[in-house]
Hints:
Elements: H1 3-29, H2 35-64, H3 71-98, H4 102-125
One protoporphyrin IX containing FE (HEM) binds near residues 37, 40, 45 and 108.
Amino acid sequence: MSRITVWFIKCAMVYFLLAISLGVYMVASGGLYPYLPIHAHFNLLGWMSMMIYGVSYHILPRFSGRPLWSDKLAEAHFWLANIGLVGISAGWILKYIDGGHTVLLIFSLIEALAIIFFVINMFKTIKSTPPIKAT
Ligand code: HEM
Ligand code: HEM
């Protein structure tokens, strides 16, 4: 497996543990905010999306029979996805404390950019190959 796949899968596991801990904490404490959106996005952007990213970087180049279009873009995707998700979570806590949403907005844009990098890389990698003519 490439290191980008291993990095994403390891991070997915860590976010899963954190998300589940927050879920149990919400149930135990009876308080939902500011934990609810962090729980939801650690699960959905952390655990589920990062697992999908990791597996996609391994499987899709093999399915399409061509190498990953850009390793550099994949690495940028990895860092921005993590910075974005942690920053968004901090943004939700700050929004809860003082009502401001600037931090949330900045890191949302970073997370969105990470997703755009992934989508571009995958589109370029899975470009259809011309059918092989029977001889
Ligand atoms: C130990 C496991 C889990 C616990 C204890 C837990 C707990 C909770 C709690 C207490 C809420 C708030 C529900 C409410 O509005 O009153 C919630 C919401 C949510 N959870 Fe979990 N959860 C768990 C696992 C998961 C997993 C595995 C996922 C996704 C893969 C997930 C996704 C969500 C989402 C998306 C919401 C927001 C739903 C909404 O806005 O209505 N949770 N969870
Ligand atoms: C750039 C990426 C994303 C941003 C900036 C973002 C932002 C948000 C925001 C601001 C909310 C409202 C939270 C609240 O105030 O309670 C929300 C809710 C929600 N989002 Fe996202 N989201 C993103 C990606 C996703 C993805 C990829 C999924 C699913 C795979 C998802 C699923 C949900 C769900 C289920 C809720 C309702 C639960 C909750 O209130 O937290 N989001 N999102």
